[in-house]
Amino acid sequence: MRNCIILLATVLFVASCGKGSSPSDAPSSDVSTPSSPSSSETFVQPKIEGNPQSDEYVIARVEAIYDNIFKENFQELGEDDEGDLPQDVPSPDEKFCTKDWNELVSKVIEYDNTTKPDEQGFFEFDYWVMGQDYGKLSISDVRVLKRDKDDAEVELLLHNLGSTTRVRLELEFERGEWFIDNIIDVDEDYDLKEEMEAYLDD
């Protein structure tokens, strides 16, 4: 009985600490700074059938990535669903981005925490939904622009709250799978990796 009480108290404490920064406060939540990426070796990647060195496979991989992110990291909850999100869901970056991308994001977060602890910092919007708020999320028109053995570029339309953004992904083949190495807002000509690197250089 005592162990159950301790476990319940721990769960409530963890839930109260995370309140206000998780997708459970959405679909209309302010953007939150990505959590510092770390190893996510316990996450099982979506299984894609076929040859990884084909356009069809790359498209299926990207569709599976966004499907997982929308379902696990950006769940749209009703008023009665508060607290139903699974605990300790790895961030999209942890699950689906390259080691190089995760290291860069970590440097930006560390820089902001050190130099601007009380300010917004670099991440003014959530690049996975291309906005500060989210709802009615989907992607369409996924197509491969180019691909070789280790690199690929994919373009898609991201739909969020009735708005559509053309997004380009740069992917790298590592650890036996395709992982995202850069996200570009084509309409705004905003290359996220370039912007992060320039931000750290200033």
What tags apply to this protein structure?
202 residues; alpha+beta; five-stranded antiparallel sheet; 5 helices; 5 strands; globular; disordered N terminus
As an assembly, this protein is single chain
Shape category? globular
Strand content: 15-25%
Strand order of the largest sheet: 1-2-3-4-5
Low-confidence stretches: 1-29
CA-based gyration radius: 18 Å
Would you tell me the structural class of the helices and strands? alpha+beta
Order of helices and strands: HHHHEEEEEH
Q: Total helix count?
A: 5
What's a concise summary of this model?
The protein is built from five helices and five strands; from the N terminus they run ααααβββββα. The chain is of the alpha+beta class and 202 residues long.
Topology, pairings included?
Layout lengths: L1 H17 L36 H18 L19 H5 L2 H17 L22 E10 L3 E10 L2 E12 L2 E9 L4 E2 H10 L1
Antiparallel strand pairs: 1-2, 2-3, 3-4, 4-5
Helix pairs in contact: 4-5
Could you describe the 3D structure shown?
- With 202 residues, the protein is an alpha+beta fold.
- It contains five helices and five strands; from the N terminus they run ααααβββββα.
- It has helices spanning 2-18, 55-72, 92-96, 99-115, 192-201, and strands at 138-147, 151-160, 163-174, 177-185, 190-191.
- A hairpin with a 3-residue loop joins strand 1 (138-147) and strand 2 (151-160).
- Residues 1-29 have low confidence and may be disordered.
